[in-house]
Amino acid sequence: MAKAYVVAILGATGAVGTRMIEQLEQSTIPVKEVHLLASSRSAGKTLTFKGQPVTVEEATPDSFNGVDLVLASAGGSVSARLLPEAVKRGAVCVDNTSHFRMDDNVPLVVPEVNPDALNHHNGIIADPNCSTIQMMMALEPVRRAFGLRRIIVSTYQAASGAGQSAINELEDEARDYLAGKPMDAAVLPVKGAEHHYPLAFNLLPQIDVFEEDGYTHEEWKMIHETKKIMLGDKNSPAIKVTATCVRVPVPIAHGESVWFEVGEGQTPSADELRAAMSGFPGLVVQDDPANQVYPQPINAAGSRDTFVGRIRPDQETSGAYNLWVVSDNLLKGAAWNAVQIAEELVARDLVRVPAGSAEKFM
Prior knowledge:
By secondary structure, the protein is an alpha/beta fold.
């Protein structure tokens, strides 16, 4: 009989956490028992798993006693404090926050792209940034078939990337704007920033805080996560990457305009690129300009798949191309990718903490 697992969801009441519950319900993981964990403010609430009521518990180190798998999306500081405690108690953790992504002891995984990285985990696996995940989905089949030298990406990121409070703020602002009332912004572009600006009927070219070099941390993440996922080295010069990340007034699903150069001497046609992408799991090609068929966030919301279109060569640069990629940032960009990682851990019999792992994070 196949082993059944005790699974804990940390941050279970949040926008990603509730979707983790849904994705776990639909997954191939045999679940013996589920624990829903959150802050003391949410403790006592009742959610459901496979139709059965489950009471939300306050997350403490002892919450992970007897737990096999942890799916975490409760914020970086919470993961930093609690996930090492979970590992110490024998639980393997998949973390959706940014806290562990650049840690050399932690694999950063998109299951369709680099699943073998899981073979070397130390009890914690990081779920990449949502905008990085969908770009990896579109470009990995290109890299495998034709090589990849350079990426320039401009993102069009949904409000939900900043949490449920940002979605609520966008909706309130839209109502106020249409009613001719002043818009009151308190969340975006960054909750703790000195200035806040409305997103409704606006674009915000800031996601996360600014670094000293003028890039935002979101842009920094896309650059270094791409290198770590594709090349195993967050600072590798083998693929050049740069990014501009923009928040747009869309509730759910990010869009990205990606310019890329393939390997030296390679000049595939657009049809050859489409063929390579069409065979890639989880990637759907929607690319028929003559009939105005291309990916749109409103259609991608609620889907596990990543959608790619507008695939075309750069007319000025040989070996360079453009594409447009869209994905639900709360599903493939977060909850579903995390559950996929857990599925892969189960399939590879890797739901165990190697000896000495906990010390790496204490």
